[in-house]
Write a structure and sequence with these properties.
Layout: H1 3-11, E1 23-29, E2 34-38, H2 51-61, E3 67-74, H3 84-93, E4 94-104, E5 109-113, H4 114-117
Parallel strand pairs: 3-4
Antiparallel strand pairs: 1-2, 1-3, 4-5
Length: 130
Amino acid sequence: MSLRDAATKVRENAYAPYSHFKVGAALRSTSGAVFVGCNVENAAYPEGTCAEAGAIAAMAAAGDTEIAEVYVIADCPNPVPPCGGCRQKIVEFARSDVVVTMATVSGRELQMTVADLLPGAFKRSHMDDD
């Protein structure tokens, strides 16, 4: 199954009773495994949790620690980028040259590298004493 197919399928499981904005994400780890996530909203936190964060949590729970590629899909006029928090989570698990594909259900796609998506990202190396 392609990442697009996986993200499209899991998007249907999104719980978005407040925004009605369903987002699906799929990522492939460097081991080749595919992990998926969808957004989940609740009354106390109507913005909910993000699809990308769900996929990353599933990857970490399975013991994988490196992302090879990411695909995010939503029903909107233009491809929607991951939120700031998810961008940082992606940076934690992906090299800067990893491609993130953002897509719409109508077929529009935009690809960016992790470095382009979050320039100047905070990394573990910032905490190193030299």
